[in-house]
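Amino acids appear as letters; backbone shape is given numerically. Here is one record.
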Amino acid sequence: MTFIPEGFQRIAIFGSPGSGKSTLAKKLSKLLGSRITHLDDVFHGPHWCPLKFPQFQSLVKKRVEEEYWIIDGNYSKVRPMVLDRATLTIILDLPFLTIS
């Protein structure tokens, strides 16, 4: 892990599908050396089978209790848990591109 500046220890990234959450998370991870948790990967688990909410919640809770992390995703039921521990929150609010 590289030096992580104050305020960048735990980063939460929220936004609509396709807004660039995972892309930004990967770039920040490369820059800071923090591990990424993509909530889609946690929720859907192996073979893209959704977890029951208590199991999903437990896995996210373990992750947010760590000292350094980057979490991206849009799961409202665990958002308060993530926000309570985040030192930086990024909300990607981009217009939806329409082609006519």
About this structure: The mean pLDDT is 92. The two ends are 46 Å apart (CA to CA). Helices lie at 21-32, 39-44, 53-64, 79-85. Residues 6 and 87 are 9 Å apart (CA to CA).
